[in-house]
């Protein structure tokens, strides 16, 4: 059963603090293993977080997750070439 949300609802509010953290690190281009090391969790756990993020934000893939974070201003790419 799907839930109805207003058109102006902010899906970021549905993310846990850890999911927001993982979202930001994905947007910086880090892989599951790198994110896992930084957050002291397994790469499998990172993968689970990414899957939940995709579901909650209604996104198809990791690239869309990264672009979403960039568009929402969760990360900045200053100094990255």
Structural summary, described in words:
Helices cover 54% and strands 0% of the residues. With 81 residues, the protein is mainly alpha-helical. The protein has one domain: Winged helix-like DNA-binding domain superfamily/Winged helix DNA-binding domain (Arc Repressor Mutant, subunit A), CATH 1.10.10. The model has no long low-confidence stretch (mean pLDDT 88).
| Secondary structural class | mainly alpha
Unreliable segments (pLDDT under 50, ≥5 consecutive)? none
Distance between the termini: 44 Å
Instruction: Sketch the major β-sheet.
Output: none
Looking at CATH, which topology would you report?
Answer: Arc Repressor Mutant, subunit A
The top level CATH class name:
Mainly Alpha
- What number of structural domains do the residues give? 1
**Which CATH architecture would you pick?**
Orthogonal Bundle
> What percentage of amino acids are in beta strands?
under 5%
The CATH superfamily title: Winged helix-like DNA-binding domain superfamily/Winged helix DNA-binding domain
Radius of gyration: 13 Å
Shape label? globular
User: Helical proportion?
Assistant: 40-55%
The number of distinct β-strands equals: 0
Mean pLDDT value:
88
Secondary-structure element order, as H and E? HHHH
**Total of DSSP H or I helical runs spanning 4+ residues:** 4
């Amino acid at each position: 059963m799907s839930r109805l949300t207003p058109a102006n609802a902010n899906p970021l509010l549905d993310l846990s603090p850890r999911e927001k953290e993982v979202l930001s690190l994905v947007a910086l281009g880090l892989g599951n293993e790198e994110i896992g090391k930084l957050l002291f969790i397994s790469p499998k756990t990172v993968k689970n977080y990414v899957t939940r993020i995709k579901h909650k934000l209604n996104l198809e893939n990791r690239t869309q997750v990264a672009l979403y974070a960039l568009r929402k201003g969760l990360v900045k790419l200053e100094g990255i070439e």
